[in-house]
Design a protein that fits this description.
Elements lengths: L22 H7 L10 E3 L6 H9 L4 E3 L4 H4 L22 E3 L5 E3 L9 E2 L5 E3 L5 E3 L5 E2 L5 E6 L2 H5 L18 E5 L9 H10 L1 H7 L1 H16 L10 H23 L4
Parallel strand pairs: 1-2
Antiparallel strand pairs: 3-4, 5-6, 6-7, 8-9, 9-10
């Protein structure tokens, strides 16, 4: 939909939970409505390195969020305090069943809770014990380099914090922690360029307009038009119903704008 009038300019359905494959086909549907400086915005569900590279290759201005965008934005640091305490998702934590049969919340320590020493062979856990690394550097299939630090099994077995550190309290092995080397940023990489653009002051200002463009349209169709579920089976029938509701939404928008064809 366009940000000026909330008119739906392209619509489709897909029988998949992943939206990545839909980004470029949906943009192609808007060719008749776009001009060279039209900015495309989309949420993280549409982000992939291949999509971002294709947008750059086609010279299509776009801001596509990635999964870590909000973690990099300091404005979201305190967002948890705005959740109502009666929200079912408020302070929801994973649970584990203990030896007594009762479940309890678990918040496992993460690598950032460990203090890595400058010698690159040892680190200190939250309980103050030392983990050792042989110094070997491993590489993942996508080229990420990392070291593995291991604690003594005896240190973990008598540790009071083992419930917050080990996934299984019955584990007889010592805690292992992996430290990944930071990836060198390539300013010419399409995804790096996208992250830099969306994290900039101008990028944040432009991308923040997306929610005010998209969500009211969904709200109108779902709550005002009462489309809480689709009534047919099969992509062709579902697509027809979805396009019908989109068309009704557009007619309403055009009528309220005073437009006359």
């Amino acid at each position: 939909m366009d940000s000026a009038n909330q008119i739906i300019v392209a619509a489709d359905v897909i029988g998949s939970g992943s939206e990545q494959s839909m980004l470029l086909p949906m943009i192609a549907q808007t060719d008749a409505c776009r001009v060279p400086h039209t900015l495309i915005t989309a949420d993280a569900g549409y982000h992939s390195d291949a999509n971002v590279a294709q947008l750059l290759e086609c010279s299509i201005p776009a801001l596509i969020a990635d999964n870590q965008m909000r973690q990099r934005d300091e404005r979201f640091e305190d967002q948890g305090k705005h959740k109502a305490t009666d929200d079912v998702l408020y302070d929801k934590q994973p649970t584990v069943q203990g030896n007594n049969g009762h479940t309890r919340p678990v918040k496992l320590f993460r690598p950032e809770d460990f203090r890595f020493n400058d010698d690159n062979t040892t680190c200190i856990c939250p309980a103050g014990q030392t983990l050792h690394s042989p110094g070997s550097v491993y590489t993942t299939r996508i080229g990420l380099r990392y070291q593995v630090f291991t604690a003594k099994a005896s240190d973990c077995q008598r540790c009071k914090l083992r419930g917050q550190c080990l996934k299984s309290e019955r584990s007889e092995r010592g805690k292992q922690v992996s430290r990944f080397e930071p990836r060198a940023k390539n300013p010419h990489n399409p995804s790096e360029r996208m992250r830099s653009a969306i994290d900039s002051v101008k990028g944040r200002q432009l991308y923040s307009q997306r929610i005010g463009t998209v969500e009211p349209v969904f709200g109108n169709i779902r709550h005002n038009k009462r489309l809480t579920r689709l009534n047919f089976r099969g992509r062709e029938k579902v697509n027809a119903q979805w396009h019908l509701y989109c068309m009704v939404h557009n007619i309403e928008k055009l009528a309220h704008s005073g437009w006359r064809g």
